Amino acid sequence: MHKAKKTSVTRIITGRIFSILPAIVLQAIIIFAIVEWLAPFATLFYSVLSVLSALFVLFLISKRDEGAYKMLWLLVMFVAPLPGAFMYLLYGNKRTGKALEQRIKSIADSIPLELNDDAETQELLRQDDKRVAQTFAYVKKITGFPVLRNDTAVYFPVGELLFEQMMAALKEAKRYVFIEYFIVQEGVLWESMVNVMEQKVQEGVDIRVLYDDIGSIGTFSARNRASLLKKGIKCEKFNPLIVLSGALNNRDHRKIMVVDGTVAFSGGINLADEYINEEHPFGHWKDIGFRITGDAVRSYAYMFIEFWNASSQNKITKDLTGSDFAETRVTEMENFDGYVQPYYDSPNREEAASNNLYIDLLGQSREYAWFYTPYLLLGDGLREAFVRAAKRGVDVRIVMPGIPDKKPVYRMSRSYYEELLEAGVRIFEYTPGFVHAKASLVDDCIGSIGTVNLDYRSLYLHYECNALFYKASLLSDLKKDFTESMHVSRERTLADENNGLIHGIIDGVMRIFAPLV
What we know:
With about 525 residues, the chain is an alpha/beta fold. The chain has 19 helices and 18 strands. It has helices at about 1-35, 40-60, 65-80, 80-90, 100-110, 120-130, 130-145, 160-170, 190-200, 220-230, 295-310, 325, 355-365, 380-390, 405-415, 415-425, 455-460, 475-485, 500-515, and strands at about 150, 150-155, 175-180, 205-210, 235-240, 255-260, 265, 285, 290-295, 340-345, 370, 395-400, 425-430, 435, 440, 445-450, 465-470, 490. The protein has a 9-stranded mixed sheet, with helices on both faces. Strands 2-9-7-6-3-4-5 form a 7-stranded mixed sheet, with helices on both faces. α3 packs antiparallel against α4 (about 80-90). It is globular.
């Protein structure tokens, strides 16, 4: 399985290389033409090319993108103007994913499920803490998803406990099941789910599976999809792989399962065996997730329906706007356990919701701000937010893997350690294995759990889902888990970092290329 996944990554990289070959060939032809035939006009030609390059650079600088991201593209265009411009227009510019985004938006406009604001809930939150209410209001303004009163939310500190509850809910399904994951892979986990899904379909339950085409490349094939369809399980892939596609980088990294509109699951785990420690390729796989009930389930159902209808290829698997789903209602709330705001990130929005949320949380932190992340490739704004919070005296901590799944990415992540450690940020590496958890917790009262890594792809390029909690009991369980994870982790210190010149140069180069990872 792992060999297949490595092969798939190689294919993706090879595809990207071949996608820019036309531009490289074009530049080589132009240079050859200038040298051989257009020598008398070479000065004029280069002058025009320089003016166009300057205009392109000005255009890039004026865009509201992360500084390090723009710096990378400026470097690429400086070294090779024509291939650089071609690559940026194809892969780097947000407008390249507009067709996909417009398709999703048109679907969203047609869905009769409404996510209306509850004025009473907003007022209660404002009375409790006006500053926190502003944070939730910002996320709503950017993403369109409202803050809701939380019914129940149960935290799971490992993937196997989360999967156990997912299977229990799947077995109890009466009407429908929505399953959306970045990676689907054959194994113990997936076989267990398929066996139950096949039985539920025979009972009349509508089951739909949506997977990301690149995320599952090498692990879930057309043959697997055909097998599900044969069993009566509807299945679609998100954003099919097309090498010369501007939306190639815009992957569906979300993890969502909704059952009957009454319960939803999300978190870090994908549908593969290492996520529940049936396999141990990188030691103990530390992942987290949650089970939620109440109005928040409706938000997750809405997310799924948007992407399903935007991805479905035929009439048989489409039509998720029918009355059965339009009339979906959650059970009456019996509890009031704080507040929750599920939302999803889109790479085609002007503002990166989760990146800005984390900057905001760090800015309002007073006592502590703790983070789980498997990768640490920070943009300028978020890096400065970590540094400023630590220098103010906030207890800022980041829990990272002790055994990396991708050594080059881990090495890039460590290039950020020295600056963070010098500012007072504490970094812990989980010695039992690999941390795949994605979460934040600030001052015992506000935090997030979802699919967002602290890297460029999650924060700027992928579709992600996240849940922001305030004063929910789940947060105390998250804090306990943070504490236990740090007890079995090795804390990094400045003494661990090599401060030599060569080390610094390597770190600098790695940071330049971090947005590509």
